[in-house]
Amino acid sequence: MIKRLSVFPLYAVLLLLFIFPTISLAQDETTETGDSLAVVPALDSVFIEERTPLPAGNVVVKDHDNDAGEAIDIKWDKSPDDFRDGKVKEYLIMRSDSADGPFELLGSAMQGESAFTDYRTAGGQEFYYKIVTINYEKLNGTEFWRASSESSVMGPVKATAQWFNTSRLNIFIGIFILAGAIIYFIFAAKGGKKFYIRKIAGIEEVENAVGRATEMGRSIYYVPGIHDMDDVQTIASMTILGRVSEIAAENDTRIDVPVCRSMVMVTAKEVVKEAFSKAGRPDSFMDDQVRYLTDDQFGYAAAIDGLFVREKPATIFMIGTFFAESLIIAETGNSIGAIQIAGTAMPAQLPFFVAACDYTLIGEELFAASAYLSGEPKLLGSLKGQDVGKAIFIAAIIIGCLLETFTSLNVSALFSSH
Amino acid sequence: MDWQIFGVWLAAFMTLGIISFLYKDNVFYKAAEAIFIGISAGYWFIVFFWDSMVGKFYVQAIESPEPEHHVWVGLILGILMLARLSNKVGWIARWPLAFVVGATAGLYMMMFFVSNAMVQVQSTIMPLWETGDGWFTVFNNIVIIIGVTCGLVYFFFSKKHEGAFGVAAKIGIWFLMVTFGASFGYTVMSRMSLMLGRLDFLFGTWLEMIP
Fold this sequence. Notes:
The complex is a heterodimer.
Chain A (H helix, E strand, L loop, with lengths): L1 H25 L1 E2 L10 E2 L3 H7 L5 E7 L8 E6 L12 E7 L7 E7 L4 E4 L8 E13 L2 E9 L3 E4 L11 H22 L10 H4 L1 H11 L3 E6 L6 H19 L4 E5 L2 H17 L11 E3 L4 H15 L3 E7 L3 H11 L3 E6 L5 H7 L2 E4 L1 H11 L2 H30 L12
Helix pairs in contact in A: 3-12, 6-7, 6-11, 8-9, 11-12
Chain B lengths: L2 H17 L7 H37 L7 H11 L12 H31 L10 H20 L8 H44 L5
Helix pairs in contact in B: 1-2, 1-6, 2-3, 3-4, 5-6
């Protein structure tokens, strides 16, 4: 009995030694940084202290440059303990709308990083930020311990929009030069200066193609593509439609314009009507010459195919934006023996038009055609101005390549866009 | 009646009706065409109504707790478009059209200048060779630079294509044609997959001949 009593204190000490750390580990400690942080088990203070990294310093928060007020940049000096196998595992970026908190977890940056951009900035609201530098031990998603240190709170700062995006200064200069050249040549053209514009085969044939329809007593079909009026190709197409309609009206030949967009229908009606008036035949214009079919791409293609084979037009123009329906329409037009003039700036569809049509306006020829056909000084001047722009780009490419080959200059960066 | 089976049969007949156009224009094609156009026109009307009138106007300008008042401008422009139904005030319909065309030109100017000019020039400016480059890389670089510059020369409209300039333009159009050839083959292959999709539907889903 005495022997038993004498060993009791030893058991008691061992029991206490076992229970105390167990209780300590079981106690949950929520950091002041809010609920978003993981719940960290409390450990021996010396153990934690030894593993606590020094905090990130010199935290700078400022509005993100050159944006529409959508972001705030946070930068900091890395913790002195931030090196390979050092005490820093991550930086937690904490945000609050008050300097006193509570702070919510916004995101994290890995060891070695020293910047973060907050894209969750409500318009006009001010925020405070701080960086929590953390060290931890984790295995299979289970965190055994965590030690952290906090930077000072920085702010307030709010995201604001900038009027000018200075990173796009090179684009501004480029457009300024191009626009300057175009304006100069427009004024020169208006002043009576004659510009040489090379012949574009497809455009040269417009009159012959319309004349063919007149001789055969058949109609002309003009397909303006499947895009709406918010596409420059459709806009260019409307200019060409005006000239084609005028020639058709002069020859007293019917022109049909099946469209797949309501806005294009409205515009095309105005254009054709005006062209008929210009040709002195306003009464020849029929409202149903310009008709809406459907907005559906392949429904439109199926309808046009049907119209082609039933009405057998002598001449078909396909000018505008086309996609997969290009070959379906062009092939049907080819099968009925119509003379076909196509034009698009869609690179993937040009091969089909080149293969199936008699003449094809390739890319920029489509836009040049509208200037060429109208003969207006401002359009011819703009064509000349654009050529100046191309000459500048060719010179830039050649000089840039030579400089990059024989020097260490990074010329291509001058043309980068952000 | 099993509506799913009915739907498969209907889709099969529509497919065959459209494909029959390869033989010649016929009554089946006409029927499929008319149904296709009618249904698609109605479908897109509903889509645009819910997308524009409800999604873009009603939700943003009326239902939203923070209404976006500028959306009303769009509605007014849309109503002005309807003015063309009247002979007297039909001219008003030109104003929204002018707005759309003008705004489009302005909006896209920046985008096209960046994507079609700046980025292209940036990508083309490269060293002809660098230390460690193989001869094939050097050849590729030279081909790209010649192709781009000669292609640009072809699109000069205010200078006669004669002499050295004409030769460069000729090389440019050759580059374009080779590109078109490659693009043609590539796209035809993708269209074959569309055809295979329809054949799979006909022989698999409809006739159940494909296990």
